[in-house]
Amino acid sequence: MKAVVGIRREDKNFWERRVPLTPDQVESLIRAHGIEVYVQPSEQRTFPDDAYRRAGAVVEEDISRCRTVLAIKEIPLHFYQDLKTYLFFSHTIKGQAHNMPILKRMMEKRCQLIDYERIVDDHGRRLVLFGRHAGLAGMIETLVAFGQRLAAEGIETPLTELRQPYRYAHLEEAKAHLREVGKSIAATGLPDAIVPCVIGILGYGNVARGVQEILGCLPVEEVEPRMLPRLPRFNRVLYTVVFREEETVEPIDPSSAFSLTDYFQNPERYRATLSRHLPYLTVVVNAVYWEKRFPRLVTRDNIENLYRQQENPALRVIGDITCDVEGAVEITRKATTPGEPCFTYDATTDRIVDGVRALPGPVVMAVDNLPCEFPAESSRDFGAALLPFLPAVARADFTRPFEVVDLPEPVRRAAVLHQGKLTPAYRYLERYL
């Protein structure tokens, strides 16, 4: 049977313009591997339909002939067909209640589900991801929010000149503008009311590297967490501090020493300690992977205590790039979009108010699909990582028992469903169904 791959149109929201494969990558799949590609037409996709036609793909609404279908975001329930293989971010592997209907529907239709999030190497490191671009866009959005929050307080800074990522033609234009803003900060300094200005980064993976790539366009000086209480009030730099696990949690048992392996295996034995550092942070950027079994790093009580105990706390903004609602950052009450990226948490009433406000509480940036703000660049990187795995997936005989289906091992690890049944690594999801 000839291998035929379909690319589904993204329609979850207005902002989603990414693609799993660019036209150049589709052309490679067709010419190098003899795979037919069908693409649903789309007016909002970052690459136009004609570019896919020139690449050799068939652009038409009906992609039902495709045994393998690629998408980015969740696929509606009506779209699934019997025995087909689907690759997308399903957001089901944590047992997310709002997406369990997707898993049930795919089980009813005896589908294969391969989740990009679980395509990992032998060490569990993700191989097909948008992490860097989430960090890039998320840090820019956070800096924009920071500038707006200061302006709402009557504090003028060069940060107010920054635009949201999607308002730049491309990433390099955004970086060039950031460097100009950085020159202004280095030349004239920041207002005394916000110095020392400290940006705390939670995490050190792909997302955090994107964050630091953006901050590298500004005059920054990296410091250690232990230095925070003694930072000089120097106004021509932004201090950055990266928090690793041993600096954000500690064993509940005071006689136990911190162990990263033990923390990952037994997180219930640990409690968060980031609150000790919060009084010294102006901006917090959350770039850590989080599950319910881990302690929250920033709790509602942490924020309420901070704003109750200090008349003018340093903390102005939390950029929650990870964006788990009421997750690692408990006051992330909802996900946002680039159209309205922020809300403000009022620590005196435990409520949120849309937009950037000068309230007694931090602004929270919680856009949940940040890479869509750099759709072309993020799609190119994502597709380049995905492309090497696709010929094997497209040609795999999924009618055979799962153990003998010929798949690259990273893809096998990402197979949540086979013939509509949970594969051994994902049988834990039964309790959520």
Summarize the model shown:
With 433 residues, the chain is α/β, with parallel strands linked by helices. The protein is built from 11 helices and 18 strands.
Task: Jot down its keywords.
single chain; 433 residues; alpha/beta; Rossmann fold; 2 domains; 8-stranded mixed sheet
Number of DSSP helices? 11
Rg over CA atoms, rounded to whole Å, is: 23 Å
Task: Report the CATH superfamily of the largest domain.
Answer: NAD(P)-binding Rossmann-like Domain
Within the largest sheet, what's the order of strands?
Answer: 3-2-1-4-5-6-17-18
Task: Please provide a written account of the structure.
The protein is α/β, with parallel strands linked by helices. The chain folds into two domains: 4-129 and 376-432, NAD(P)-binding Rossmann-like Domain (Rossmann fold), CATH 3.40.50; 131-373, 3-Layer(aba) Sandwich (Rossmann fold), CATH 3.40.50. The protein is 27% helix and 15% strand. It contains eleven helices and 18 strands. The strands form three sheets. An eight-stranded mixed β-sheet has the order 3-2-1-4-5-6-17-18. It has an eight-stranded mixed β-sheet with strand order 8-9-7-12-13-16-14-15. A two-stranded antiparallel sheet has the order 10-11. Strand 5 (85-88), helix 3 and strand 6 form a beta-alpha-beta unit. Helix 4 crosses helix 6. The two termini are 34 Å apart. The model has no long low-confidence stretch (mean pLDDT 96).
Architecture blueprint of SSEs:
Blueprint: E1 4-7, H1 23-33, E2 36-39, H2 49-54, E3 58-59, E4 68-70, E5 85-88, H3 100-108, E6 112-115, H4 131-152, H5 171-188, E7 198-202, H6 206-215, E8 220-222, E9 238-243, E10 249-251, H7 260-265, E11 270-272, E12 283-286, H8 300-309, E13 317-320, E14 342-346, E15 351-354, E16 363-365, H9 375-386, H10 390-395, H11 409-414, E17 415-418, E18 421-422
Parallel strand pairs: 1-2, 1-4, 2-3, 4-5, 5-6, 7-9, 7-12, 8-9, 12-13, 13-16
Antiparallel strand pairs: 6-17, 10-11, 14-15, 14-16, 17-18
